[in-house]
Amino acid sequence: MDKPRCLSIKSKKDPNSRCEAKATRGDxxxxxxxxxxxxxxxxxxxxxxxxxxANTIYxxxxxxxxxxxxxxxxxxxxxxxxxxxxxxxxxxxxxSTIPLVYRFSYADSKKHVWIFDVRFLIQMMHYGNxxxxxxxxxxxxxxxxxxxxxxxxxxxxKKIPIVYVEEGELTPDQIWNEKVLDIFxxxxxxxxxxxxxxxxxxxxxxxxxxxxYLYHMWxxxxxxxxxxxxxxxxxxxxxxxPLFKWIPSExxxxxxxxxxxxxxxxxLIAAFLTRGQEKATQGCGVLYVxxxxxxxxxxxxxxxxxxxx
Length: 309
Hints:
By secondary structure, the chain is mainly alpha-helical. The chain folds into three domains: about 1-45, no CATH class; about 75-190, no CATH class; about 200-305, no CATH class. The protein is about 45% helix and about 5% strand. It has helices at about 50-75, 120-125, 140-155, 170-190, 195-200, 205-220, 225-230, 250, 260-275, 280-295, 300-305, and strands spanning about 105, 115. It has a two-stranded antiparallel sheet. Strand 1 and strand 2 form a beta hairpin. Helix 4 packs parallel to helix 9 (about 260-275) and helix 6 (about 205-220) packs across helix 10 (about 280-295). It is elongated and about 95 Å long. About 25% of the residues are buried.
């Protein structure tokens, strides 16, 4: 069996060449057994044509990346100076200090550009305010709301907090608020102006009424086929992901606390909003949820009287 080649350089005068002798002393030949300077290959330098091609590819991806961010974050993403507002309303710091990942900007009906921190707009929703420009009081159009929802979904997918974090980690209350805000933002994006506080202010009796009414609508009131139910909420009757885990008589008035009801009903609402594959079916799911809310919650009934019986 042939011995492997020596790992040393040929000589100090020719360090770019490898010794051609056989390795008779371990990994080295007899001549280089003491010096043991390992030879490494020198990378082939790029030609001028290759460098030019690499620079072209680099510029293309930089430009493409900026266009993607521009579309996702808005026209003032990289140039907050063009926005009408110059400071963040919550921190009172210049808009240029808003972290890039949280910047959201848009052009209003008058083509004026505005920039906000996503977390500030989320906080507005949390306190029951509609999504609107706090300066001009102009409500966000449906397209802007959809754009904002997509931005929030990207942050949630990447597990980036959508609320202000002071201690470095989200508290359990902040994690819960994120989940509720996410669901109600989806309802808003589907064209229905809702108030997050409606859900936050529901007591146990209100949650029980909501569950009972939604169950009754799904099972008895509306004459839809099994196939139509499966289209609206895929997997609604499966053993792994049933829409209703219990019939009302099994859980109503059985002593479950407010925290339990909030969690169960939020999962139920999420199923109606997110399992459907098409936007039209998600819109039908929203009507189920809002109808049940309107018939169990006075504030919702006042906002959507046409849904109440």
